[in-house]
Amino acid sequence: MDGPILKVRGLTKIFKQQVVLDALDLDIPANSVTTIIGRSGIGKSVLLKCLANIWPAQAGTMHYGEQVAAIGQHSLRQAFNLNFSYMFQNNALFDSMTASENIALPLRECTKLSTADINDRVQALLETMDLRGCADKYPAELSGGMQKRVALARALIVEPQIVFFDEPTTGLDPERKYTVFNMIAECRRQFKFAAVLVSHDIPEVFQISDRIAWIDRGKIQCVGDREQIYKHSDTVLKNLLTNAGIGR
Amino acid sequence: MISYTGKFSIYFVLELGRVFIFAGQSLYYFFGQRSPLSQLLFAIREVGLRCVLIVSIVGLFTGLVMGLQLYYTLVKFGAQSALGTAVALSLIRELGPVLTALMVVGQAGSALASELGIQRNDEQIDALSSMGIRPLGYLIGPRLLAGLICFPILTTFFDLIGIFGGYITGSLLLNVDAGVYWHRVYTSVQLADVLGGYLKAIVFGFICMTICLYYGYYTHLKSELRGVRGVSQTATRAVVCSSICVLAADYLITSFLI
Questions:
Q1: How many helices (H) and strands (E) in chain A?
Q2: CA 20 to 30 Å from B92, out of A218, B130, B155, B241?
Q3: Where are the domains of chain B?
């Protein structure tokens, strides 16, 4: 595993006087999968949305090498010229656009590539993601798995250094969960990005995770590999793992 | 009561400020987009073309009814020859801009508010932010500008078809001389009347589009309900609020113009 591509320090998010993230610190290593686990409603998705600059944060800084930027005031893209993508729980595909239009959107609106270049890149990615024949279909005409792949293709088209995955397997049956996790692991190896996942699917998500971060009471309480997480003595974490069927 | 009035006043002023900042930022970010012209043309099709038919139909029937009502009023004074003047000035100064605005709000405004509400609920707006696309510039700016462009054009349609409607009832059905009718239309309408009508149309376009887009964009903050019910509630509120604001603005502008 490489050193951290991004360090997050003192991230604080308050919703209506309730502190959800309390001066949270987190390191995101390059070329690895970091999974954030924790109880429901504890702030896992909030953490991801603050990092992706979708929601503002009250305080906190991001460190990229020697450079520092305030979270919420600059996105990773603006602050460090880091490309990042976010894959939403429900895919967030534009239902009035076809699959290829969805995938091309970030390139069309944020780069100066010509239409021909954009089409070439979209076609290549459709091939890679095994989405041949789906290019002209609307999201509603695609199966759940296909929609996930289109969403992942849209996230990967900008060749990101970091991809945030917000509960990518919610609502899928066990077989499809494995398929999606394998797809993420395979894409990460191929495209060499740092993945940050939020998932409730313990222990399945551990199969593809290089590092697991447990969030509770507004902070990252523990970071480590699977074994380190299993050995942690905190009862809240033990209960979380026990409820997930580990160590019964 | 005093406390309530105070709270409402502060809320109203704050909200007014937010709406203007929303509109200003949307237009500012719109011009920073990569392909603003194609987005604008798409929005014009969405806002303008969608309303041409309904505005034409309402314009025609308004003209027909006005021809009828005004004829029977004017005939009491032996002034039926002034029918063209009455129809044209009523439409150009007042009814054209107001009824067009109300029709466009009902037809396009509610659709835009619902569409944005659904996009907000499905996290499509957040998805744009995550891609580095400014949602205000991409979703709101072109539609707001399209409203400013389309409202005067649709008002012109309404006025012309309405005047023609007045001609159908007045001249074809009630035997007012056609030459007199058109001569009165031609001689009574001054440039100031037309410009006043256009001023109203532009102001109403700004009001209607901004309010509908604002409600739709912030549907998660504007409705206590969630999901589809929240979207339908914000769409309804957007239409009601826009309609009231159009009528209030009409009174204000008319007071200044007269």
A1: 8, 10
A2: B241
A3: 2-257
Q: Give contacts of A76 with chain B, Cβ < 8 Å.
A: none
Q: What's the CA gap between B116 and B212, in Å, rounded?
A: 9
B132–A110: do the CB atoms touch at under 8 Å?
yes
The two structure tokens encoding residue A70? 């305030």
Neighbouring CB atoms inside 10 A of A84's CB total 25
**CA distance linking residue A139 with residue B35, whole number of Å:** 24
Point out the residue among B122, B130, B133 whose CB comes nearest to the CB of A54: B130
Q: What is the pLDDT of residue A2?
A: 67
Nearest to A92 among B126, B132, B133 (CB): B126
Q: Residues B113-126: what's their mean pLDDT?
A: 92
Nearest Cα residue in chain A from B131:
A106
Question: Which residue of A lies nearest to B126 if distances are taken between CA atoms?
Answer: A54
Task: Using a pLDDT cut of 70, give the percent of chain B over it.
Answer: 100
B176: left (phi over 0), alpha (psi -120 to 50) or beta: beta
A87 close to A163: Cβ distance less than 8 angstroms? yes
* Cα B226 versus chain centre, distance: 28
Residues B165 and B68: their CA atoms lie apart, in Å, by 10
- Chain B residues with CB under 8 Å of A106 CB are 131-133
B191-217 helix and B2-30 helix, angle to the nearest 10 degrees: 100
Q: Is A141 helix (H, G, I), strand (E, B) or coil?
A: helix
Flag whether the pTM goes above 0.80: yes
What is the distance between the alpha carbons of residues B165 and A154, in angstroms, rounded to a whole number? 53
- Output phi, psi for B5, to 5 deg: -60, -40
Task: Give the residue on B whose Cα is nearest the Cα of A106.
Answer: B131
CB contacts, 8 Å: A86 with chain B: 126-127, 130
Give tens-digit pLDDT for A31-70: 889 999 988 888 899 999 998 888 888 999 888 878 888 8
Tell whether B124 is within 8 A of chain A (Cβ): yes
What residues in A contact B36, CB-CB < 8 Å? none
Average pLDDT over residues B216-227: 82
Of A77, A89, A93, the CB nearest to B132: A77
Residue B177: count other Cβ atoms within 10 Å of its Cβ: 15
For range B118-146, the mean pLDDT: 92
Arithmetic mean of pLDDT, A8-14: 91
Taking the Cβ of residue A53 and every Cβ of chain B, the question of whether any pair is shorter than 8 Å is answered with yes
Q: What is the pLDDT of residue A5?
A: 83
Chain B CB within 8 Å of residue A105 CB: yes
CA A222-A178-A214 angle, to 5 degrees, is 10
Give the tens place of pLDDT for each residue, A75-133. Answer: 777 777 778 889 998 889 999 899 999 999 988 888 888 899 999 999 998 888 888 88
Measured between beta carbons, the chain A residues lying within 8 angstroms of B122 are: 90, 92, 95
* A68 in B contact zone (CB under 8 Å): no
